[in-house]
């Protein structure tokens, strides 16, 4: 297997950290970003090195700031090496009906979940073209394919990510670059645990009872997807076997979107 230079956004937690661990265990070079304190970043980097990453680099950038995102990618290519694989994963959530949706939360959510992907992709594409190889993997969501009430910003951003994925796949179709979106159903991460917590506050059910109800509402196999399963799907999309898989929105959702 070829060793790749990989950049993962939002890898200090949840799905991004799971993807980073799977890719580190296959010996790839890993550069990552995400919000975390110094001790956590040291612990994450040490874990990725222990798992076998060829190199590990952390880059600090607030994904709401386009200039900072572009500078981060430039710094990563200078420090780690040219990025072969870009995984756009950083994301946030806010749940509220449209009439009560705070404007600042809408702006932040679109910036982190959608616009940051525009900046990272625009920053790596020339280099990938020049080298004749690239893999861009955007972590969208089932909410890139179907909607849920009270998640207007998230659903809009994630549908946008699917549209961005298809557009860039067309722009790069003859350049050796593939562009795909992964669309997970429920994954038990801090982003979802916050929603379970809010629901249990309203219902007065225990956290675990509410988690069980949540998974049964939409995900027919009644099983949370794991970050490691998403990491394994990334490994496939990075592989030569997936050279013709491009412009796809791939659900990993226990049949949620089969409804
Ligand atoms: P998480 O909260 O565990 O992780 C989110 C990551 O994004 C963290 O590393 C965080 O630091 C980073 N991040 C957030 N805001 C940032 C900012 N302004 N600047 C830099 N980094 C920032 O959440 P997760 O569930 O692991 O989500 C990861 C991705 O997967 C998101 O795009 C999310 O929408 C998507 N997703 C999650 C689920 C799920 O059920 N958990 C399902 C489908 C899609």
Summarize it.
By secondary structure, the chain is α/β, with parallel strands linked by helices. It contains 8 helices and 7 strands; from the N terminus they run E-H-E-H-E-H-E-H-E-H-E-H-H-H-E. The chain folds into 2 domains: 5-185 and 226-252, Rossmann fold, CATH 3.40.50; 186-224, no CATH class.
Topology, pairings included?
Blueprint: E1 5-8, H1 14-25, E2 29-32, H2 38-51, E3 55-58, H3 66-79, E4 85-88, H4 103-131, E5 134-139, H5 152-171, E6 177-184, H6 190-203, H7 207-218, H8 227-238, E7 249-252
Parallel strand pairs: 1-2, 1-4, 2-3, 4-5, 5-6, 6-7
Helix pairs in contact: 1-2, 1-8, 3-4, 4-5, 6-7
Structure commentary:
The chain is of the alpha/beta class and 259 residues long. It has 2 domains: 208 residues, Rossmann fold; 39 residues, no CATH class. The chain is 49% helix and 13% strand. A 7-stranded parallel β-sheet has the order 3-2-1-4-5-6-7, with helices on both faces. Helix 5 links the parallel strand 5 and strand 6. Helix 1 packs parallel to helix 2 and helix 6 packs across helix 7. The longest helix is centred in the middle third of the chain and has 29 residues. 42% of the residues are buried. The mean pLDDT is 98. The site of nicotinamide-adenine-dinucleotide has 28 residues, from helix 1, helix 4 and helix 6.
